[in-house]
């Protein structure tokens, strides 16, 4: 978060204490390691839709890295110009995520349908959270303290997919552990730091509490919704769309 509520560049790093860049580079590293086995190490085997989705996600992460730096260096005009690309990048991220989820579940053999319906929920929920936080960031684009915090929230959505893949790669086969617990533990830990740091902020200190509430709601729903008959019916219908 590179600006104060008044739009001035702060004299110390944002609410992370060590600067937004370090946190974002940490996220980039997590994504690289987390998706190494399932994507980066097998680029030649991935289909075009996967490449398109990955490219758009990497473009979004690049924007999250560049935009705070442009604010800190007072390049506001360029910051606004690059921000315009989000109107194409984020809808592209969401549409390709839904497209991929349909392709994956349509191709799943019967014995894997239960797992794919769970993954469908996780992907759909992540897409909805991305859309929500990005939409709120755009609504508050003229209020730097709110806009920056909601943009940070879009980055937090990426932690669980990357961390879950990393844990699946590291855990011994047959281990009885839900990898999303680890991803959400990291997410909630970061949110706790941000909430504590924000407690004296003159503007926007309720944003991360709201974001934490959204993540908590989804953490509960992910253990309930996928097993319901309604979701299973939806998953079967979603799989049939490609037919």
Automatic annotation (TrEMBL):
UniProt KW Transmembrane keyword: yes
Keywords: Membrane, Transmembrane, Transmembrane helix
Keyword field contains Ribonucleoprotein: no
Highest taxon, organism lineage: Bacteria
Transmembrane segments: 21-40, 52-70, 82-100, 120-138, 150-169, 181-197, 206-225
Protein name per Swiss-Prot or TrEMBL: DUF2306 domain-containing protein
Provenance organism: Pseudoxanthomonas mexicana
């Amino acid at each position: 978060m590179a600006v104060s509520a008044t739009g001035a560049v702060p004299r110390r790093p944002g609410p992370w204490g060590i600067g937004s860049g370090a946190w974002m580079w940490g996220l980039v590293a997590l994504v690289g390691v987390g998706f190494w086995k399932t994507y980066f190490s097998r680029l030649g085997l991935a289909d075009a839709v996967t490449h398109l989705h990955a490219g758009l996600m990497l473009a979004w992460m690049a924007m999250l890295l560049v935009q705070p730096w442009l604010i800190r260096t007072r390049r506001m005009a360029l910051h606004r110009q690059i921000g315009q690309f989000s109107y194409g990048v984020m809808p592209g991220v969401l549409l390709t995520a839904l497209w991929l989820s349909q392709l994956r579940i349509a191709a799943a053999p019967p014995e894997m349908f239960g797992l794919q319906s769970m993954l469908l929920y996780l992907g759909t929920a992540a897409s909805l959270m991305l859309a929500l936080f990005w939409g709120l960031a755009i609504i508050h684009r003229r209020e730097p303290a709110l806009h920056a915090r909601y943009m940070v929230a879009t980055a937090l959505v990426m932690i669980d997919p990357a961390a879950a893949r990393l844990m699946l790669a590291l855990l011994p086969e047959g281990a009885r552990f839900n990898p999303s617990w680890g991803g959400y533990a990291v997410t909630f830990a970061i949110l706790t730091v941000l909430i504590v740091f924000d407690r004296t902020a003159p503007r926007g200190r309720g944003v991360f509490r709201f974001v934490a509430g959204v993540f908590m709601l989804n953490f509960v729903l992910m253990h309930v919704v996928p097993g319901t008959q309604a979701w299973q019916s939806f998953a079967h219908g979603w799989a049939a769309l490609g037919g």
